[in-house]
Design a protein that fits this description.
alpha/beta; Coagulation Factor XIII, Chain A, domain 1; 2 domains
Amino acid sequence: MTNDLAISVRGLGKKYRRNTKARSDSLRDLLKDSVGAMLRGKKDESQTFWALSDASFDIRKGENVGIIGLNGAGKSTLLKMLSRITTPTTGEARINGRLGALLEVGTGFHQELTGRENTYLYGAILGMSRAEVASKFDAIVEFAEIDEFIDTPVKRYSSGMYVRLAFAVAAHLDPDILLLDEVLAVGDFAFQRKCINFARSLEKKGSTILFVSHNMFSIKTMCERVIYLRAGKVVFDGPTDEGLRIYENDSRLKTAAWFQDEQTAGAITITDVRMMDERGKETGIFDHGQRMRVRVAYKTTREIVQPDFRIGIDRADDVHATTFSSFADQIDIPSVNGEGVIEVLTPPIMLTAELYTLNITIRENGFGRMLTAQVGGHFHMRHPVFSIAFGMFHDAGVWSVEGQTPQALSQQTKAS
């Protein structure tokens, strides 16, 4: 391992055994299972799976690298092995420098202790001495923005306060290498931005950052390189833009993570989604105030009565922006059966500049049972001024100054 490398991974893998049977609850069952295992002579390999398999890569000092992939790809398993929480089944990972990991925010906090006491406790768990925590204590409290409540037991903290203090302690470890696993998915958006800026300050100091997230806007903002995992294997290691294109292709039309479809039995499935401008040209970038045309193809396994087709838009931090609903717009669709296409032309979209996700959901009987929820794709809103600082959306107001009419103000602006 050369001195310019922060992390070197060779053939890293982790195999787990599926828990396919209920736990034995009697001595007889335990003896029976044990004797059966001895007679078989070896473990049933069909009941095992590789959470990560044969991963090899090098990360240079000072690099920011995003670890991306769909749920179950092996991202968290990789970070747990790098942080020595989990022992690998195969291969090795060599670490060059002081490593800090924020994999489960707040692990080690004691509910009955105050924020001050937990700061010292958590700092010790992360490897800081008491003197080091003391020297950074004021900076930690200032970063967490909880100075009024630092001597309050954390059991009385809101979830946001809890998260801010945990991140503040971990961030001030001053590590050579920092591992972050979805920690920016919690807390308010302003604090997420603050964490990103802090990570950038660590980068300027020469720290190496590995960042696991489903927030592709954060990945694109922080990382020039991504490692893409699919089913436990590294399938791409390179420039962020190219890796995100692969992620987009893999995630498109996937079932939304929050949707439970056990009862619907695949009654209807979205087979294609196209995002276009008003003229029908496919695009993934829209300007503030531009209209969007969304075309959805579907296939049913039975007749769906009074379907409600919904086009939802979520911001990159999963804040829901808006929903276009055929039923709410009083579009009469008595039923659908077989294959078909439905299209909507939105009004001018006044969202601020950011990355957004298009989600497609379908309900039966108007606002009745949800039959499917799938990811339609991602798109960027573009505007040189109306960024996230303006909130979720921005539209012009009607202004007056000292009794002047809006027309007079407009003329005054043109005259100047």
